[in-house]
Amino acid sequence: MVRAAPPLTRRTGLGDRAAAVRQGLSAYGLLVWMWVRATLAYRTSFLLMAFGNFAASGLDFVAILLMFSRIHALGGFSLPEVAFLYGTCSLALGLSDLLVGNLSRLGARIRDGTLDTLLLRPAPVFVQIAADRFALRRLGRTFQALLVLGWALGRIDVDWTVGRVLMVPLMAVCGTAIFGAVYTAGAAFQFWAQDAAELQNSLTYGGNALLQYPPTVFARDLVRGVTFIVPLAFVNWLPALWLLGRPDPLGLPGWVAFLGPAVAALMCAGAGLAWRRGVRAYRSTGS
Amino acid sequence: MLYGAVVAGSFRRYATYRVATAAGVVTNTAFGFVIAYTYLALWSQRPHLGGYDRAQALTFVWAGQALFALIAYGGLDELQDRIRSGDVAVDLYRPADLQLWWLATELGRAGLQLIGRGVVPMAVGALAFPLSLPGSPLTWGWFLLSVTLGVVVSFALRYLVALASFWLLDSSGLAMVSTLACMFFSGLVLPLRVFPGALADLAQLLPWAALLQVPADVLMGARTGGALLRGLAFQAAWAAALLALGRLVQSAATRKVVVQGG
C-alpha cells in the first residue's frame, strides 16, 4: 500500500522547508521502491539489461585499452591515470543517471499530456519525474565504473594522505550533483522545447567522453569552456590533477581543486531555479 | 510507385522533427570535437596508425558523427512494438511487402538524417580541423553509394532483430546486444584498422564494417580503384545476404503468426 503524502502548501520558514524536503525524499523513496519491485518481477530481463548497461559503458574503456595497446601514454598520462579519470567521471555519471536520469522523459510526458496527471498528485513533480520508471539496470554502469576505479586506485602513484583519500568519495558526490544539475537543467529546457531531449546528451554522455581523457589532450579553449562556462571540469579533472600532483593546463591556482562542492551547490541551485521557471511556464497541451 | 511514396513520406515525417534534429546536430558535433582531440593525441604519438594520416583519422571521426543517426539506430522499434502488440497482423494484410515497406521507411529517414544531421557536423569538422575530403564529385558519388549500401546493411541487421520479437516476448535484450555489436564493430568506438592484429582482420569481414568503415575509407580516399570496388562489393554482398536471411525469417514468422479474435 502506498501512503499518500499530505498536500504541500506554500511554506516560508526554514523548518517548513526541511519538512518539505523530507516529504519529497520520502515520496521519491516510495516511487523508487515501487519501480524496483516491478523491475525485479522480471529477474532475467533485469540481469540482462544491467549487464547490457555494464557492457555499453565498458565499451568506452575497451577503446581506451585498445589505444593503450599501441601507446604508453596519452597526453602525458599513463593507463592507470586515464583509468582513474574514467572511473571517477563514469561513476558520477552513472549515479546521477540512476538517480535523476529519467528527467529526460519530461518532453515525452508533455507531448502525450501525462504530465498533467503528475501535477495533480500530492508530491513534488520533480520527484515524480526523477523517479519515473526508475531504471535499476543503470547500476551496471556504476558497477563497471567502480571496477575500473578500484583497479586504477591500486596502480596510480599517489602519496595517500587522509585528505587525498577523502577526496575520492568527495569527487563522486560532487560529480553526481554536477551531472544531476545538468540533467535537471536539460529537463527544464524541455518545458520550452519538448523534442530537445538529446541536447543534454552532449553535456552528460559527451561530458563523460571528454572527462575520461586527460585535459592535456584537448584545445585550451575547450578546457576553458568546461571550466568556466559549464564547469564539468570540477567533476574529476581539477581534483584529479591535484591528486595526481600534475600542473593545471590553464595555470589555475591549486585551491581551485577544492571548489567542487561550491560549484556543485551553485549548479544545483541554478538548475533548481530553471526547473521552477519551467514548471511555471508550463501550459498543458490541452484536449 | 508505392515504395517511392513510402520513402518520400518517411522523409517528410522525419523532417517535421526539427528541434530533435537540431538537438542531434549539437550532440554529434560536441562528440566530434571530443573524439577528434583524442585521435589527434593518439596519432601525434603514432603517426600512420592503421595506415591513416592525421587528416584521414580526423575525417573518420567526423564521418562517424555525420553518419551516426543513419547507421547506429533507426525507426524499427516501432515494428518491434507492432509485433509485440499484434498490430503487425494489420500490416501483413496490406498489399505491400513487410520488408520492403520498412526498408523504404528507413531509406527515407536516412535521406533526411544525412541532410539534417550529417551535413552540419561534417562542415563544422572541416572548418575546425584539416580533413581529407575528396575534391572530385565522382568520389562524393561513390561515398553516397557506399553510405546507401551501409544504410541497407544496417536496416537488414535491425530488421532481423525486430523479427525476433515474433519468438521472444521481449527482444530488448537482443536489441541491446545488437546495438553494442554495432557500436564496436562498425568503427564508431575506434576505427577497425586500428584494432590489434587478428581482431582488425576479423572485424573488417563482419557485416558491421559495411556501416561506417567502408564509407569512411571511400570518403577519405583510403579506398580507390580496385579497393573501392571490392569495398562496394563487400557491402552489396552483405546487404543481399542479410536481406535474403530477413526474407527467410519473415516467411517463417508469418506462417507462425496467429491472430486472436474474429
Automatic annotation (TrEMBL), chain A:
InterPro entries reported in the protein's UniProt record: ABC-2_transporter-like (IPR010390)
One Pfam family it belongs to: ABC2_membrane_6
Alphabetic keyword roster: Membrane, Transmembrane, Transmembrane helix
Superkingdom assignment: Bacteria
KW Transmembrane (keyword) present: yes
Chain ranges passing through the membrane: 48-71, 83-101, 139-156, 168-193, 222-243, 255-275
Family matches, as PANTHER family: INTEGRAL MEMBRANE TRANSPORT PROTEIN, SLR0610 PROTEIN-RELATED
Protein name: Transporter
Species this chain originates from: Streptomyces albospinus
UniProt lineage: Bacteria, Bacillati, Actinomycetota, Actinomycetes, Kitasatosporales
Automatic annotation (TrEMBL), chain B:
Keyword Oxidoreductase attributed: no
Transmembrane intervals: 20-43, 55-76, 114-133, 139-161, 173-192, 227-246
A Pfam family assignment: ABC2_membrane_6
InterPro entries, per database record: ABC-2_transporter-like
Name of the protein this chain belongs to: ABC transporter permease
Keywords: Membrane, Transmembrane, Transmembrane helix
